[in-house]
Automatic annotation (TrEMBL), chain A:
One of its GO terms (biological process) is quaternary ammonium group transport. Keywords: ATP-binding, Nucleotide-binding, Sulfate transport, Translocase, Transport. This is Sulfate ABC transporter. Residues 3-237 form the ABC transporter domain. The keyword Transmembrane does not apply. GO terms for cellular component: ATP-binding cassette (ABC) transporter complex.
UniProtKB/TrEMBL annotation, chain B:
GO terms for molecular function: ABC-type sulfate transporter activity. The gene is cysT. This is Sulfate transport system permease protein CysT. Residues 65-268 form the ABC transmembrane type-1 domain. GO terms for cellular component: plasma membrane. Belongs to the binding-protein-dependent transport system permease family. CysTW subfamily. It comes from the Bacteria. Part of the ABC transporter complex CysAWTP (TC 3.A.1.6.1) involved in sulfate/thiosulfate import. Probably responsible for the translocation of the substrate across the membrane. The complex is composed of two ATP-binding proteins (CysA), two transmembrane proteins (CysT and CysW) and a solute-binding protein (CysP). It is found in: Cell membrane. The chain crosses the membrane at residues 20-47, 67-91, 103-125, 137-161, 193-211, 249-267. Keywords: Membrane, Sulfate transport, Transmembrane, Transmembrane helix, Transport. It holds the Pfam family BPD_transp_1.
Length: 349, 283
């Protein structure tokens, strides 16, 4: 199923939640909507499901206008953030729900429903849990049941709202791999919402980054990680250090900054450099403007805090066993060499 | 060194005053609730089974019990349906006057039952607002079973509303959204998802409503007319027996009412407990 969204807007009272969304999701694609809370990603997901309605815009799926359809007629598999399993039903009844509520003519027979549920229980590797109630399950098991309930109706589109948000780190990684496997096996067009970039990159074919109701960048992991389209994306992808620089003839310059090797495709003038702490190498130089204020050991890395005369403090991460790390000591003066960074025009405020 | 030589440490409660607070509450509960109930049971036991049976199966007692139970059952059925609807309206919709309506639901609790009985009688009597319309149509309310039902349902209606309301409010909207995305519509969603979730609370409210109706006195005696074998309720008969210095008669009838209410409460709690075990929301 190909999903096409055009010029979609949605406000809650005076708050604009979606400010013009254009997005196409190809048949069989696995797409992540990535953004901080309040970026509008869950609202977009709910609109696709028919659980919320836009103020304006179009939503077509394989050419059909879905804004004319009730949620019941869209055949959406929706996995809720807290799973929303029916507490009074067994796992088996939860999974069968979508089949048992069909109108008489379209409802499969009892034996058929039982067979389909058994098949799903096996597929989801929760075969032994069929007669339990949701309260008797762990978070990861509930997640699987929620997915099973959604898959039982053979959905046209699978939508997942923060599917791993409530799980601990180990279960999360495990389920991520498993969900990828489920997608590859079913081939269902899938969209999931997350605020975790690692999760988005690891799982999705394509990541859609949202901020304040807009799509700010779309692409694969490498593109978004290495070439963020906006300062927001750079910051959100971990380039949390901002340094003021000057662009002159296509080169970057700032006191104490060794950035001549970085490309700067900007007109001359002030600019901002976005760097990740792990991409920032301190180079010892007695005349350097930055001082190593503190060094702490996190095992794999040395975490440095560097400060300048104006009191600005920035973090830098060095691999503890790298030759560079051996040279660093607290109190030392250094220059900064960003190994990789993004440059954006200075804010015109 | 063996571990046993370590000095024993006495665990100390973090929150002080457990004994004092529990002691006070249990003592008070005993004086105000348990001892009267035990006294009633003992009095009943003192009567002896044969005499007890004779009192209960006396035609007038049986008639009053039948009237009481019938009226309480009808009143409870009305409250069960109306209370559920009222809770739904109060929780699910936002409209001007909602808070006022919500506050009105407490009136039957706050109003002296005698006042309720008097006003209902005035309204439904032959020259009252409602009575003047209904009686020419052949519908007499005062001095009939209908009047008893009316008075009982008036005084016990908040039980169902107040039991269902908080549970309905806490119900996760995602449950209904999940049902919708799975193809379930309106009443199917109510029947299969919402009602099972609020059922324990609703049942609790219905049971207390019924128990209260069984014992309702003040409101009923005004509107019932209190004709033996026709509109005389059990609690009134117990009162009459007491007036006649027939303590045994009064105690026997009271005992029957109490056993009925307790059995009902027990069954209702069992059902709620069973539902709660599966994670449904309880009041």
């Amino acid at each position: 199923m190909t999903i096409e969204i055009a010029q979609m807007t949605r406000s809650f009272g005076k708050t604009a939640v979606l400010r013009g969304i254009d997005l196409t999701v190809a048949d069989g694609e696995l797409v992540a909507l990535l953004g901080p809370s309040g970026s509008g990603k869950t609202t977009l997901l709910k609109i696709i499901a028919g659980l919320d309605w836009p103020d304006a815009g179009r939503l077509t799926v394989d050419g059909a206008d879905w804004l004319k359809l009730d949620p019941q007629d869209r055949r959406i598999g929706f996995v809720f953030q807290n799973y929303a399993l029916f507490p009074h039903m067994t796992v088996r009844d939860n999974i069968a729900f979508g089949l048992t509520v069909r109108p008489k003519g379209q409802r499969p027979g009892r034996a058929e429903i039982r067979r389909r549920v058994d098949e799903l229980l096996g597929f989801l590797q929760i075969g032994a849990l069929g007669d339990r109630h949701p309260a008797q399950l762990s978070g990861g098991q509930r997640q699987r049941v929620a997915l099973g309930r959604a898959l039982a109706i053979e959905p046209t589109v699978l939508l997942l709202d923060e599917p791993f948000g409530a799980l601990d780190a180990a279960v999360r990684r495990d389920l991520r791999q498993w969900l990828r496997g489920v997608h590859d096996a079913t081939g269902t067009t899938t969209i999931f919402v997350t605020h975790d970039q690692e999760e988005a990159f690891e799982l999705a074919d394509r990541v859609v980054v949202m901020d304040q109701g807009r799509i700010v960048q779309t692409g694969d992991a490498a593109t978004i990680h290495d070439s963020p389209a906006t300062p927001f994306v750079a910051d959100f992808m971990g380039a949390s250090i901002q340094l003021p620089v000057t662009v002159q003839g296509g080169r970057l310059a700032a006191p104490g900054l060794d950035a001549g090797h970085l490309p700067a495709r900007l007109p001359d003038g002030p600019a901002r450099l976005f760097v990740r702490p792990e991409d920032l190498t301190p180079v010892p130089d007695p005349g350097g403007p930055w001082t190593v204020a503190s060094v702490s050991n996190t095992g794999a890395h040395l975490r440095l805090v560097l400060s300048d005369a104006a009191g600005t403090e920035i973090p830098a991460d060095l691999r503890r066993r790298s030759p560079r790390a051996a040279q660093i000591a607290p109190g030392m003066r250094v220059n900064l060499r960003p190994e990789h960074a993004s440059v954006f025009p200075a804010e015109t405020a | 060194m063996s571990l046993t030589s370590a000095p024993a440490v006495r665990a100390r409660a973090v929150l002080p005053g457990f004994r004092l607070t529990l002691g006070t509450t249990v003592l008070y509960l005993s004086i105000i609730v348990l001892i009267p109930i035990i006294a009633l049971v003992l009095t009943g036991a003192g009567i002896g089974p044969a005499r007890l049976w004779a009192i209960i199966t006396a035609p007038r007692t049986l008639a009053s019990l039948r009237i009481t139970i019938t009226a309480a059952a009808v009143a409870t059925i009305i409250n069960a349906a109306y209370g559920l609807l009222m809770a739904w309206v109060l929780v699910r919709y936002r409209f001007p006057g909602r808070r006022l309506l919500d506050a009105l639901m407490d009136i039957p609790f706050a109003l002296p039952t005698a006042v309720a009985g008097l006003s209902l009688t005035a309204l439904y009597s032959a020259n009252g607002w409602f009575g003047s319309v209904l009686e020419p149509l052949g519908l007499q309310v005062v001095y009939t079973l209908g009047g008893i039902v009316l008075a009982m349902s008036f005084t016990s209606i908040p039980f169902v509303v107040r039991a269902v309301q908080p549970v309905l409010e806490e119900l996760d909207p995602a449950l209904e959204q999940a049902a919708a995305s799975l193809g379930s519509r309106g009443f199917t969603t109510f029947r299969r998802v919402i009602f099972p979730a609020i059922m324990p609370a609703w049942l609790g409210g219905v049971t207390t409503s019924f128990a209260r109706s069984l014992g309702e006195f003040g409101a009923v005696v005004f509107i019932a007319g209190n004709l033996p074998f026709k509109t005389e309720i059990a609690s009134l008969l117990a009162y009459i027996r007491l007036e006649e210095y027939d303590y045994e008669g009064a105690a026997a009838i009271a005992l029957v009412l109490m056993v009925l209410a307790l059995v009902l409460l027990f069954v209702s709690n069992m059902v709620q407990l069973r539902a709660a075990r599966h994670g449904a929301v309880t009041a």
